[in-house]
Design brief:
It contains 20 helices and seven strands. It is an alpha/beta fold.
């Protein structure tokens, strides 16, 4: 067994070996032409995990045969960037590859500007996030953005077959790839994750074995149990945790909570997700959920592990056992959609503030009815722009607490909002 991971052993060193991204690297494509002509711009490679961002950067360095620096935005800062820039001043055409560049803050990104502009370095940044939001405009304007696509099923299966026949280790094992669905599903289109999973499966099956979906699922469930708070499982397990609470299963919720605790997950991250859940999935069906989640966040922020596990468990099981409603998120989602569709509708005159004489003369605030001057502190009055009259963004759901809210609103608004 090689100590070098399969994904690394099989990393392409030429564009012809690269699987996928033909729109960028195929014959006559814009990026391939730039590489072949040696006229490489600074660039941002944007795409999902495991589609070839790092590989393309390495291919560029190998092809152009120039000094190649690599930094990770997770572990590097301004100091490391400046050290690279200083060294690159004597290395014409040098390339600086920064993985996860979206994690650099504005100051760190600004440290790159002068060197990129003067051509001291050619920057290649890799990101899974939209660079329009995560890379500051000054740096973005100096870079060409290339969008990488997720590998399709045909490309992933080709990659699997290629590895089994060409890898120095796996090609000696006489492995038959009978079924691929489980490999593709678990890896989620991430080529690096796919190859790591394939290597795990072939290690367990050893020589002269047949890869089936059942075999892959069994091995994956047995072996992929470690929690990586920086990797894909971080997102998979928090997703399972949230969905267990949403499905009102405290047992599932506390199990996934335990997985995160054992993996050393940040207590504030767990508490923060429960805080969001309390509004998004429970809301007015049980307003106490938000109070408990807030208290939980405050408490675990003060004491940490191991005692915080008890508080997290209390909150998770309470949220799972609570009545559910997503009316709050549906309401704000509908309102935001209305704003996007209708634009800046004018505020009705009677709702406008009138601090000056001129505004009063323009009827600002005229005919506004102060609710506390009426019986039950309520009087019929329009609060939406004319174009949206009668639109019910918030619709109470069928649970005890929101039925009280529905009754309250129906008594006042009658049939206007359909309560």
């Amino acid at each position: 067994m090689s100590t070098v991971p399969l994904a690394e052993r099989m990393r392409p060193i030429t564009l012809d070996e690269l699987v996928g991204q033909q729109h960028l690297t195929g014959k006559g494509s814009i990026l391939r032409t730039a590489i072949e002509q040696g006229k490489l711009p600074s660039m941002i490679l944007w795409g999902p995990p495991g589609v070839g961002k790092t590989t393309i950067a390495n291919i560029i360095a190998h092809t152009l045969k120039v000094k190649f620096y690599t930094l990770s935005a997770i572990s590097s800062g301004v100091k490391e960037v400046r050290e690279v820039i200083e060294d690159a001043k004597t290395k014409p055409g040098a390339i600086l590859f920064i993985d996860e560049i979206h994690r650099f803050n504005k100051g760190q990104q600004d440290a790159l500007l002068g060197a990129v502009e003067k051509g001291i370095i050619r920057l290649i940044g890799a990101t899974t996030e939209n660079p329009s939001f995560e890379v500051n405009s000054a740096l973005l304007s100096r870079c060409q953005v290339y969008v990488l696509k997720a590998l399709d099923k045909k490309e992933l299966i080709f990659l699997l077959n290629q590895v089994l026949t060409k890898d120095a280790v796996l090609s000696k094992k006489n492995i038959e790839l009978k079924e691929t669905e489980a490999l593709l599903t678990i890896s989620g289109g991430d080529a690096r994750k796919l190859l790591n999973l394939l290597e795990l499966v072939t290690d367990v099956l050893d020589k002269n074995a047949v890869i089936t979906d059942d075999a892959v699922m069994e091995i994956a469930q047995q072996r992929i149990a470690l929690y990586d708070k920086k990797g894909e499982q971080h997102y998979d397990i928090i997703s399972a945790f949230i969905k267990s609470m949403r499905g009102s299963d405290p047992n599932g919720a506390v199990y996934w909570l335990a997985r995160m605790i054992e993996g050393g997950e940040d207590v504030k991250f767990i508490a923060r997700r429960m805080l969001i859940f309390a509004s998004e999935d429970i809301g007015n069906a049980n307003p106490n959920a938000l109070l408990l989640a807030t208290s939980t966040f405050q408490a675990v922020s003060m004491i940490g592990y191991p005692e915080s596990r008890i508080i997290l468990s209390q909150c998770a099981t309470y949220l799972a056992g609570s009545a559910k409603s997503n009316a709050a998120i549906v309401a704000i989602g509908g309102a935001l959609a209305a704003v996007a569709q209708t634009g800046d509708l004018p505020v009705p005159l009677h709702l406008r503030n009138a601090p000056t004489k001129l505004m009063k003369e323009m009827n600002y605030g005229k005919d506004y009815k102060y609710a506390h001057q009426f019986d039950d502190n309520f009087t019929l009055q329009e609060y939406l722009p004319e174009k949206l009259k009668g639109t019910a963004f918030y619709v109470p759901q069928k649970n005890a607490r929101e039925e009280e809210i529905r009754k309250f609103l129906k008594e006042r608004w009658k049939t206007k909002y359909g309560y």
